[in-house]
Amino acid sequence: MDKRIDETIKRWQDFASRQEAAEKFRLNPDMAKVNLLADGVLNNEARHGLKFCPCRLNSGDAAADTKLICPCNFKLQKTWKEKGECWCSLFVKE
User: Fold this and answer.
1) Per-residue model confidence as pLDDT tens for the chain (94 residues)
2) CB under 8 Å to 53, separation ≥6 — which residues?
3) Which residues pair with 91 in a beta bridge?
4) The model's pTM
């Protein structure tokens, strides 16, 4: 596996582990999906200079697009409230 993908996944795991108990979430246990998403984030970084979520399209508006940097503020999204997962299912509720 690509070392950059491993490092990205480790950062996401660290991010998830620092959440308060009431707001606890974790990486999706489907590691094939997590690897695919990490690859997409890294490809977006190479193309656009920022780690944009691979499942959402950039608008070209820098202010609006900063909301798409992974991990995005997924707890505000309808998908999180209804399904307990972020837009692309990278993070899921514990």
Assistant:
1) 589 999 999 999 999 998 887 778 999 999 999 999 999 999 999 998 999 988 888 888 888 888 888 888 888 888 898 999 998 999 999 8
2) 40, 41, 44, 68, 69, 70, 72, 87, 88
3) 27
4) 0.85
Query: d(Cα 55, Cα 59) in Å, to the nearest integer?
Result: 13
Token representation of residue 10: 């480790």
Enter the tokens of residue 50: 């920022």
Instruction: Look at residue 22 and give its three-state secondary structure.
Output: helix
- Provide the 10 A C-beta neighbour count for residue 15: 13
E strand or H helix at 38: helix 31-48
- Which tokens is 48 given? 């656009």
Q: Which amino acid is at 8?
A: T
